[in-house]
Specification:
heterodimer, A: about 250 residues, alpha/beta, Glutaconate Coenzyme A-transferase, ten-stranded mixed β-sheet, two-stranded antiparallel sheet, about 20% strand, B: about 300 residues, 2 domains, three-stranded antiparallel β-sheet, about 35% helix, globular
Chain lengths: ~250, ~300
């Protein structure tokens, strides 16, 4: 048995994907802690940007929501949401944005709106928030989601935020400035996207996970990289930062 | 001099069927105004907010609303809004219509409303299903040959209710921390009620004019209501009551428990002062923020 949880592996893998990045649009929950970990490890110059209007946050404690007062205290700038979405996001200043969703398809398109029919939904989800325009404008989109058949679906019930849409090239054709989803970090594996097709490809399996474990949790048969590797397990220092400094109460680690 | 009571401000400026925007993104959400609207029994309101949050969940549970205009429907970081879901899925206590945008789309609607424009363009919605379910999101061809661009119509609420740290008696209002879309919503609205933690002399406002978000020019009523944004927060005054946001998830799952909560905490108190007293000193102590003062600047 490993001495870390699947969530910890997921957070660490997401944090490492931010190596060298300057500006990241942070979401709530796992992305939040992954970005804070990256700032303390692989991306010391990382500026955390929150859709609530905060640029360059240095929260003294882990924020509980994207509007947490701890994000304001000591930030480089706090601006209106018109400025945040207009100048920072649409203005092309965001390198990476983290997104997630209730459903994702093979092209990284995301659903956060409804499960079932829109007019008579089985489950009414929160909706877009800023995700729709974030997915269009951020230079790269990173996705954190737990792998499950309910979430990794052949067909979305609703397309809230565009990934690679119907396949490679479609974003460019529609004039979208951002390159779209680049990586999907799950609790079992890491996917990247095949440049030719725009489809998700299994790149690395977390230690102890077999390819059939991944296939069993997906609504389609995924492409697998010919250079499939094992994800580097968390280092003692990464685990120490997570457990002692970033999430001492274990809210995000279980 | 626009200083008045919450009771009179709501009685004067919020009517059945009105379009109402109680804005404030996570911070400065005026629950005090929402509770007074519930107490006065307003019906058929069109409630606009980027994030309906608990404030509209409570108003929907109380039967005030016929429609929500929004961009993120959830209890932030906790889960769904159960009263809104009951209304949408089971028409309890009444049917509820939804009109949804993205955050930038909602901001753009307020900007169009505030700038007196017929629409506002934004680069969003391409490839998304949102325009399919909301016909008010449209695409127009750029007259300068840049292809199609999404547009949204103006949003001009009958009344905007803005909570802030301080204002003078004429409604010159200063707000710091998260600014959300309060300025745009206020300028877009036909009437504006500002609710503040402190009423200060005009000299205090004039000493720091860059911090004035909303001028008295567009304000109809000023209400002095300390702790009026609880369980949301006001930077520098009190922290967000995250425990309550979690507790509401439990309470609001059950229709009867929700009604009992409204009975006790909204109908059961006459005004915000009674609510503040009822919340109790222990909670206010727990929500006391740390000290983090800005350095003064020289405007001379």
């Amino acid at each position: 048995m490993s001495d870390y949880s699947p969530s910890e592996m997921m957070i660490v893998a997401a944090a490492r994907a931010l190596a060298g990045i300057r500006t990241v649009f942070v979401g709530v929950g796992l992305p939040n802690i992954a970005c804070n970990l990256a700032q303390r490890t692989v991306a010391p110059d990382l500026e955390l940007v929150y859709e609530s209007g905060v640029y360059g946050a240095r929260p003294a404690r882990l924020p509980l929501s994207i509007g947490d007062p701890a994000l304001v205290t000591g930030a480089l700038s706090v601006c209106s949401m018109a400025d945040l979405f207009g100048l920072y996001l649409q203005g092309g200043r965001i390198d990476v944005a983290f997104l997630g969703g209730a459903q994702i398809d093979r092209y990284g398109n995301l659903n956060t709106t409804v499960i079932g029919d829109y007019a008579h939904p089985k489950v009414r989800l929160p909706g877009s928030g800023g995700a729709c325009e974030i997915a269009i404008h951020a230079r790269q989109v990173f996705i954190i989601m737990r792998l499950s058949r309910r979430s990794f679906v052949e067909r979305l019930d609703f397309l809230t935020s565009p990934g690679h849409l119907g396949g490679s090239g479609e974003r460019e054709r529609l004039g979208m400035p951002g390159r779209g989803p680049q990586v999907v970090v799950t609790d079992k594996c890491v996917f990247r996207f095949d440049p030719a097709s725009g489809e998700m490809v299994v790149m690395s399996l977390h230690p102890g996970v077999r390819l059939e474990d991944v296939r069993a949790e997906m609504g389609w048969d995924p492409r697998v990289s010919p250079n499939l590797t094992e994800t580097e397990p968390p280092t003692p220092e990464e685990l120490r930062l997570l457990r002692e400094e970033l999430d001492p109460l274990g809210v995000y680690r279980s | 001099m626009k200083l008045t009571t919450m009771h009179d401000a709501i009685a004067t400026y919020v009517h059945d069927g009105d379009t109402v925007a109680i804005e404030g993104f996570t911070a400065c959400i005026c629950f005090a105004a929402a509770h007074e609207i519930i107490r006065q029994g307003r019906r058929d309101l069109v409630l606009c907010r980027m994030t309906p949050d608990l404030v509209y969940d409570q108003m929907v549970a109380a039967g005030c609303a016929r429609k929500l205009v929004f961009s993120y429907l959830g209890n932030p970081g906790v889960g769904p809004l159960h009263a809104v879901r009951r209304a949408v899925e089971k028409s309890i206590p009444a049917p509820l219509e939804l009109e949804e945008y993205s955050h930038f789309g909602m901001v753009a609607r307020y900007i169009a409303g505030a700038y007196c424009l017929p629409f506002f363009p934004l680069r969003s919605y391409v490839g998304s299903d949102l325009p399919k379910v909301n016909p008010r999101i449209q695409f127009v061809e750029s007259p300068y040959g840049d292809g199609p661009v999404a547009v949204v119509p103006p949003l001009n609420p009958d009344v905007a209710i803005i909570h802030a740290q301080r204002a003078d008696v004429n409604g010159n209002t200063q707000l710091w921390g998260l600014l959300g879309a309060q300025k745009e919503a206020a300028f877009a609205a036909k009437h504006v009620i500002v609710v503040v933690e402190e009423v200060v002399d005009e000299e205090v406002i004039r000493s720091d004019p860059n911090r004035t978000l909303i001028p008295g020019l567009i304000v109809d009523a000023v209400v002095h209501e300390p702790c009026g944004a609880h369980p949301s927060y006001v930077q520098g005054y009190y922290d967000r009551d995250n425990d309550f946001y979690l507790r509401w998830d439990e309470i609001s799952r059950d229709e009867a428990a929700t009604r009992a909560w409204l009975e006790e905490w909204v109908y059961g108190v006459r005004n915000r002062a009674e609510y503040v007293e009822k919340v109790g000193q222990e909670t206010w102590e727990r929500l006391k923020p740390a000290q983090a003062w800005a350095r003064p600047v020289n405007y001379g």
